[in-house]
Sequence to fold (362 residues):
Amino acid sequence: MRKLSELEGVAVGIISKRQPCTAYALRMELKASPSSHWRASAGAIYPLLSRLEDEGLIRSTDDSSDGRGRRPLSITREGKKALKAWIKEIANPTLLSEIFDPLRSRMFFLGALAHKEQIALAERVLTDLALHLENSRQYVRQNPVSDDFFEHLGAVGGVINAESRIKYLKTVLTQIREQQT
Amino acid sequence: MRKLSELEGVAVGIISKRQPCTAYALRMELKASPSSHWRASAGAIYPLLSRLEDEGLIRSTDDSSDGRGRRPLSITREGKKALKAWIKEIANPTLLSEIFDPLRSRMFFLGALAHKEQIALAERVLTDLALHLENSRQYVRQNPVSDDFFEHLGAVGGVINAESRIKYLKTVLTQIREQQT
DNA sequence: CGATGCATGTAAGCTGTTACATGATTGC
DNA sequence: GCAATCATGTAACAGCTTACATGCATCG
Fold:
């Protein structure tokens, strides 16, 4: 059984939770998620779903009576197996260290800016991050434990991450200010 | 002036710091960085550098006396401008929310596993994360403030991030255990 | 009855990966 | 002298984005 890519894993996971679920609904859910790494573009989703269907991981039921040509998707037994394998793949150190943060990668080169610019930029980003944190908190409120336990857990992860980035930028700011000497 | 992509920005940044710097040295530095989102593959780096040179952002000095055909790179005034613009781009909310964490994305679907499997996986990952944190701390030690202030800041970001992920997984674990009921 | 949103899909292009190719240098 | 590493580069391929195309449904 082939390994699922990140987007494939997420797609199969969403389908398994929301089934029956149309491709469009899947795209909208990806779009709505606060840390949207993917644009959930049609050009990515539709070929991906065809692939998954060809391999028997998902199944679509053609309903000719549906004028809009909706094709509700559901997961197969094979798909469920692949999903479980994908989840367990996280027990792989290389996957764990693969996160990439455009904020942090820029910190390495912040010295290219003048001291005043550094501070101005950091302050600006700090307010943006505060906004982002507020959004993440709202997402948690929209996904209470009572609703779906694991969705709640995922949402909480967003808040913790946002908080840690704010903490990080704050230490950066104070250290830059001290650097003035 | 064209916007730089993430990898381009990092490449120009490293060249600007390490100049004169060969393409190979650049790749090795990318590889050595603890959160290696990129494999720093030759097929990505060399075409990218040609592109940057064609656009006048970097300059290479051909030394025919160098048997290995090393071509030391340095940054141009245009390149410096582009680097500054790239750094300032972080003041863009969409860029800020673009981080993607394979751990968190799997949490949404952890319910697909049996309760025992959930706990076993989380415990396993927790030890992996502890190792990752130790690596990040060592990276900080290898990049003291005295050496390069901003590199130190970047390294510290890795530690803070690793800590926050551990904190996250711990809350996940305790909540899963409570869920047993 | 026209704008907006639902719903599917395709084509071109960019960027990255893997795998390969080539040759020089260093260390044992 | 041979293996490993340094150093550059290319070709085939994979995956995602943007932009486009098509048509149905709903709401004012």
The helical segments of chain A are 6-18, 23-32, 42-54, 77-88, 93-96, 102-107, 115-142, 149-179. Chain A has a mean pLDDT of 93. The CA atoms of residues 44 and 169 of chain A lie 34 Å apart.
